[in-house]
Design a protein that fits this description.
Layout lengths: L2 E9 L3 H10 L6 E7 L15 E10 L3 H12 L6 E7 L25 E9 L3 H10 L6 E6 L17 E10 L3 H9 L10 E14 L3
Antiparallel strand pairs: 1-3, 1-4, 2-3, 2-6, 4-8, 5-7, 5-8, 6-7
Helix pairs in contact: 1-2, 3-4
Amino acid sequence: MKYKIIVCVVPHNNGELIIEAAKQAGATGATVMMGKGTASSSVLGMLGFGDSSKDVVLIVIEAEKVSDVLKNIMEVTQDKKKFGVVFTLDAGTFIKAGHLTKENEGETIMDKENEYQMINIIVNKGYAEEAMAAARKAGAGGGTVIGARGTAKEGDAKFFGMEIVPEKEMLMILVPTEKKDDIINAIKKLECFSKAGSGIVFCNGAGDFTLLGKN
C-alpha cells in the first residue's frame, strides 16, 4: 500500500482545526510541531508568512485518501485570510509499528519527478537563520524553523557523524525543483557547514502545493 505525508503549516494553535478536518476525511491521527516562519514581509514564502509562530501538522495517510483529506482541509480554511500552506511529501519507506512481518518489511515508494522539493536542514541551535539567509539569496522564498534536541547521551554513537549537541534546529524550505541544487550549494558553502559533522541536509519530493485560506 502506498502512503503520502500531508504537511500543513498554519498559525499557532490552529493545528487541531486541521487534524479534525483530516479525521473527518479518513485520517486516523497526526503529529503537530511548533515552528517559526522566516519569510520577510515583502516576500510570500512557501513555508511561512512573516516571523510568527506556526503549527506544523504531519499526517501519514494512504495515498488513495489524500484527495479527500486535502479537500476537507481547504474547505475549513477557505474563509481565513493567508492562513498557511498544505502540500504532500513522498513517504518512501513506511513501517507501521506492530505490523512488521517477514512478508511486510516496509515499502519503498518511488514517484514521478516532483514539481517541488522539501529541503530539510538540521543544524546546531543558532545556525538555522544563517542557513535561511543563504537559501533566500539562492532563490528560496521562506522557510519554517522547528526547535529540536538531540536524544543521544554521552558515549553514544554520533548521529550521521554529527557531534552530540542537545539543542538543534530543523529548517524546512519548500522550493521549485529547479532551484533545489542552487540552494543546497549555497548552504554547503556556509562557514557553519565547514566543519565535518556540523549539520545534515536531505530532500523529499513534494506535490499538491496549495495556499490555504483567502490570499
